[in-house]
Amino acid sequence: MMQSAFDLGEHLKLREVTFKVSPVLWEKWDISDFDLDFNNWKKIKFLNDALEDFHTDIDLVPNDKGGLYLFYVNCKTISGITEIPFYIGRAQITEGQNLRKRVREYFNKFSKNNERPKITRMFNYWKKDLYLAFYELDNNVEIVDLEKKLINSLLLPMNDEIPDLETKQAIKAFS
Predict the structure, then answer these.
(1) Is the entire prediction scored with pTM above 0.85?
(2) 45 - beta bridge partners?
(3) Within a 13 Å sphere around the CA of 28, how many CA atoms are in the beta-carbon half?
(4) What's the gap between Cα 29 and its chain centre?
(5) What is the chain's alpha carbon radius of gyration, rounded to the nearest angstrom?
(6) What torsion, rounded to 10 degrees, do the Cα atoms 97, 67, 162, 30 define?
(7) Is the pLDDT at 74 greater than 70, yes or no?
(8) Are 146 and 34 in contact (CB under 8 A)?
(9) In b/e form, how buried is each residue of 113-137, taking b as 16+ CB within 10 angstroms?
(10) Burial class for 24, CB neighbours closer than 10 Å (0-12, 13-18, 19+)
(11) DSSP run (H or E) holding 82
(12) Most buried residue among 1, 15, 111, 140 by CB atoms closer than 10 A?
């Protein structure tokens, strides 16, 4: 429990994230070839109850497929509407990479160091409520293209790189 209004204010400030909500960008990037309804994504709790290892559901993430993955925070206040997307990424299927291996890297590597500060922050502040959704795809070209379109259209707060130059410049100009 917070000791004072100051403590609560500090707590809230450290957990502040910025979302950019742009119908212009949603319409700019055509993803109509895919049925990305969130009901079609498989969803798991990312970490176990002790928050020190993966939830057992990590085994549901395929190790023989590629695809997209989405880290989101699931707030139970209004179930079904308070799933807050934080980060979208991709895993191509190669001899050395797959969907399960890629998502495991986030906890094993990025949650514990400052190599990717936004990812470390995501784990530090929201790991108890952090979930993973994944969308399996077999075609690496489609995986890369779809990730690029989703990053450009959603501009999620924990994604650092914006592939579209015009969007990147626009954000830079008004930040």
Answers:
(1) yes
(2) 131
(3) 15
(4) 19
(5) 17
(6) 150
(7) yes
(8) yes
(9) eeebeebbbbbeebeebbbbbbbbb
(10) exposed
(11) none
(12) 111
The 10s digit of each residue's pLDDT in 2-21 is: 689 999 999 999 999 999 99
Question: Locate tokens 């994944």: which residue?
Answer: 134
Strand intervals (E) in the chain:
42-45, 66-74, 83-91, 130-137
- Largest CA-CA distance found in the chain, in angstroms, rounded: 53
CA torsion 94-99-103-108 (nearest 10°) is -50
Is-contact 87 122, C-beta < 8 A?
A: yes
Q: What is the 3-state secondary structure (H, E, C) of 111-154?
A: CCCCCCHHHHHHHHHHHHHEEEEEEEECCHHHHHHHHHHHHHHH
Give CA 101 to chain center in angstroms. Answer: 16
Q: Is 69 helix (H, G, I), strand (E, B) or coil?
A: strand
d(CA 54, CA 46): 6
Classify residue 87 by burial, with Cβ atoms within 10 Å: 0-12, 13-18, 19+. buried
Distance of CA 112 to the CA centre of its chain: 17
